[in-house]
Amino acid sequence: MNTPATPLLQVQNLRVEFPTRHGTLLALDDISFDIAPGEILGVVGESGAGKSLTGAAIIGLLEPPGRIAAGRILLDGRRIDDLDADAMRKIRGRQIGAIFQDPLTSLNPLYTVGRQLVETIRTHLPMDEAQARERAVDLLRQTGIPAPEARIDQYPHQFSGGMRQRVVIALALAAQPRLIVADEPTTALDVSIQAQIIALLKRLAREQGAAVMLVTHDMGVIAETCDRVAVMYAGRIAEIGPVHEVIHRPAHPYSKGLMGSIPAMDEDRERLLQIDGAMPRLNAIPRGCAFNPRCPGVHDRCRRERPELADAGATRAACWLAGRGAEAAR
Amino acid sequence: MSAAAPRVAGVAASVDAPLVEVQDLSKVFDVSAPWLNRVLEGKPRQKVHAVDGVSFAIRRGTTLALVGESGCGKSTVARLLVGLYAPTAGSLRFDGQDTRAVLASPQAQALRRRMQMIFQDPYASLNPRWRVRDIVAEPLREHRLLDGREPIERRVGELLQSVGLAAADAVKFPHQFSGGQRQRISIARALATQPEFLVCDEPTSALDVSVQAQVLNIMKDLQRARGLTYLFISHNLAVVRHVADEVGVMYLGRLVEIAPKRTLFAAPRHPYTRMLLDAIPDIHMTGRARTPVQGEVPNPLDPPSGCAFHPRCPHANARCGAERPVLLEREGVRVACHAVEEGRLAVGG
User: Where in the sequence is the domain holding B346, given as residue range(s)?
Assistant: First the structure.
């Protein structure tokens, strides 16, 4: 869709490790992608594929002992992966807004919604109390909370699940961040609320030019919301490309299996396509292509050599077969 | 059958007769504050009508899916059907017998054997300290279906194989399995008593899509091979569309529409059903503009008067706010909506 020239977020060869007693686990392995202003990038994959970890690495909230072992993360051309905790805290909130899955744990139950918003706004923007409150009301209105003037003085427990998630989004937007990292923002919500939150995210990207990284396991949400999508598998990007292409003409066998396993609303199938087996654990990632033991089209080379992301039609896929023909896989 | 298990003449004999029949089923939970708080603080008694006058039937070998948002009462219906809750009012019949009467009689064990349940969370529904063989064998022992170590082990092996696991997996512990494999262990356990009726409460909601596909495929294969009857509870309409023969839509404890799957998805009638169908993000509708949905499910402690959906309904009028609509059948579809009944609402496409 829209592909403005300069990306706002650049992730280059990111590698995240978890040192453990039984050796170092490689949780993210050579992840590279970027997001332009106004663009929504979806990140999908199964539990444990590394999607949430990628988000956590970008916002600087990797849980110890996890650490960035290699690669760079650039926001607006400036490196942010090597900043200290204080500098990163200033960027988080001001320039990067984070939205997490569970809206209740993201809010302080002891403070009113307004107090939390005002505090966040005043931390990042030069405003006095009254201006900040006005902005808070405005943010609540933007996120679709009815009667924001009245609700601003209520506590989180007085809000329903969907309303709380809107408050969390309002908090994330308080300082007009240029990048929003949303980790499963609709997963805990019912479909009707989910639809409203998705519409809100899309509007923010469109109207405020925010770059959004949307992590979810729900392909339906991705299809509705994103411009591009990255499919992750075992800590690597298996395929990345325009959302329509990845869904309808996936090049990577894993993306194909993933799309085929989703029950669709507009077609009847007696059986769903299933990928046998399960994603390998981090301590047992096979040599070569991580997907090779489950791949229906596996070749010798897939077991020996790891494929890098390469052009495969309209998308980029990490597969010896995709877009290169069987010759490449020998 | 004994006097404690009365049968309705002629019903149980027919093959087409429903295996499960539910009539005006209701469940009220008392969620009042403790007595002392009521006395001292003047807090009122509070009751939630979790299930409110629900009626449906499930034919042998078919799947009825109940859908709805959180708090609509679908899981309560599931628990009522297998006897985990006792209904406040209404009747439940299984194979022509009144289940409440049977469960109070000496035949209770025999009836329990015929219906089993699969729960949502495969991490919470398996005892982490038991080996898989003990988990799957528990119903066999509990119901004294098999005696002796060897026959039980052989049966456990067969059950594990029937859900795509290996007989050798029997010696492992649940933590050695992934979520999808654990859910298959739950299915194997449920199949141990050779039930006819399985109640599945969100069986794939905790699973990744590729794993969900494995579990749904196994469930369908088992249904075909053994003629199983399912009650399938889910909030995921795409999954429901894949597994169900008939679909019931619930809202705030009431059934608002129940129809054969094809009809329901092709021509939803109730405004709430339309809203739900409109709201699902679907992978094949990239870039589709959605009708924004208004409002949220009201507090079940204080449901709206009349039709529970009327505050969110674009077609509501004075009658909807005053009078509760009943399920009326038209062309094989049962809908509880004044607008549909009065013809104010054209059949949706």
Answer: 267-281+303-349
At position B349, the amino acid (one-letter code) is G
Q: Are residues B183 and B220 in the same domain?
A: yes
Fold of A9-95+175-264+273-329: Rossmann fold (3.40.50)
Task: Please list every residue in chain B whose beta carbon sits closer than 8 Å to the beta carbon of residue A269.
Answer: 242
User: Which of helix, strand or coil describes residue A69?
Assistant: strand
Say if CB B272 and CB B320 are below 8 A apart.
no
Indicate if B60 and B107 belong to the same structural domain.
yes
Domain shared by B88 and B199, yes or no: yes
pLDDT above 70 (res B291):
no
Q: What CATH number does residue B65 fall under? A: 3.40.50.300
My answer on whether B241 and B271 are in the same domain is no
Could you tell me if B161 and B199 lie in one domain?
A: yes
pLDDT tens column, A237-247: 999 999 999 99
**Domain match, B275 and B230 both:** no
Q: What is the pLDDT of residue A1?
A: 46
Which residues of chain B have a CB within 8 Å of the CB of A193?
A: 293, 296
- Residue type, position B265, single letter: F
Polymer length of chain A = 330
Contacts of B280 in chain A (CB under 8 A): 191, 220, 265
Q: Calculate how close chain B gets to A58, using CA atoms only, in Å.
A: 24
List Cα–Cα distances, A302 to A67, A289, A323, B128, B230, in angstroms.
29, 5, 15, 37, 42
Decide if B6 is inside a domain: no
Whole-complex ipTM: 0.75
B160 in the same domain as B24: yes
Q: How many domains does chain B have?
A: 2
| Per-residue pLDDT tens digits for A48-94 | 899 989 999 999 988 888 999 999 999 999 999 999 989 998 898 88
Q: Which of residues 166-205 of A touch B (CB under 8 A)?
A: 190-196, 198-199
Q: Which one of A190, A196, A272 has the shortest CB-CB distance to B242?
A: A272
| pLDDT for position A3 | 47
Q: Which amino acid is at B217?
A: N
CB B21 within 8 A of CB B12: no
Q: Measuring CA to CA, how many Å separate A157 from each of A101, A162, A173, A196?
A: 17, 12, 21, 20
E strand or H helix at B101: helix B99-103
Tokens found for residue B300: 């079940």
Residue A105 has pLDDT above 90, yes or no: no
Q: What is the mean pLDDT of residues A235-260?
A: 93
Cβ count within 10 A of residue B131: 17
Q: In angstroms, what is the C-alpha Rg of chain B?
A: 22
Please tell me whether residues B183 and B91 are part of one structural domain: yes
- Looking at the complex, does the CB of residue B148 fall below 8 Å from at least one CB of chain A? no
CA distance B26 to B77: 9
Contact B210 A275 (CB under 8 A): yes
B332 burial class (0-12, 13-18, 19+ CB within 10 angstroms)? exposed
For chain A, what are the domain ranges? 9-95+175-264+273-329
Neighboring chain B residues of A223 at a CB cutoff of 8 Å: 281-286
